[in-house]
Structure formats: C-alpha cells, structure tokens
Amino acid sequence: MTTEELNEAFEEAVNKVNSYTDPLPADLLLRLYAYYKIANKIDSSPGSRKPLINAFKTNALFQARNLSEKQAKEKYIDLVNRFIP
C-alpha cells in the first residue's frame, strides 16, 4: 500500500468512526485514541477534566509509544475494519 493509499484508508476509517452511532467498548476507543494521536503526531496530553479518564488515555498512549505513524495508521484501520461494520 502506498503512502497515499494508506492516508486515504486512514481518513476513511476516521470518518467511519466519527459517523458510527452505536456504543463501542472502552478498550477499543482507547486504542483508537492512541493510534490516532500517534498517526497524526499529536503530542498534547489528554485533556479530560476527569483524572481517571486521563489515566486510561495516558496508559493507552504509553502502550502504543513505540509505533511509527505508519504502524499507528495501519493498526487504526485494522481495528475499525474488524469492529465497525
């Protein structure tokens, strides 16, 4: 898959998640959150007003910390394709 194809597939997956209305499991959302932030080089800390939510988000980012942008996009796409019809 070329870089352009990967970027297009990633954007399609992001749009699919954003338009999905059924509830998704928290662990899936946390992985998607971490992959999205890494894929888009977003270095900001989690910004929830609830410390527990920030802790879960920080943990998700920590677990995915060694991924490249390309790997994060691939993992994001894979999760979306597996869990969102």
From TrEMBL:
<dbReference type="Pfam" id="PF00887">
    <property type="entry name" value="ACBP"/>
</dbReference>
<dbReference type="InterPro" id="IPR035984">
    <property type="entry name" value="Acyl-CoA-binding_sf"/>
</dbReference>
<dbReference type="InterPro" id="IPR000582">
    <property type="entry name" value="Acyl-CoA-binding_protein"/>
</dbReference>
<protein>
    <recommendedName>
        <fullName>ACB domain-containing protein</fullName>
    </recommendedName>
</protein>
<dbReference type="GO" id="GO:0000062">
    <property type="term" value="F:fatty-acyl-CoA binding"/>
</dbReference>
<dbReference type="InterPro" id="IPR014352">
    <property type="entry name" value="FERM/acyl-CoA-bd_prot_sf"/>
</dbReference>
<feature type="domain" description="ACB">
    <location>
        <begin position="6"/>
        <end position="85"/>
    </location>
</feature>
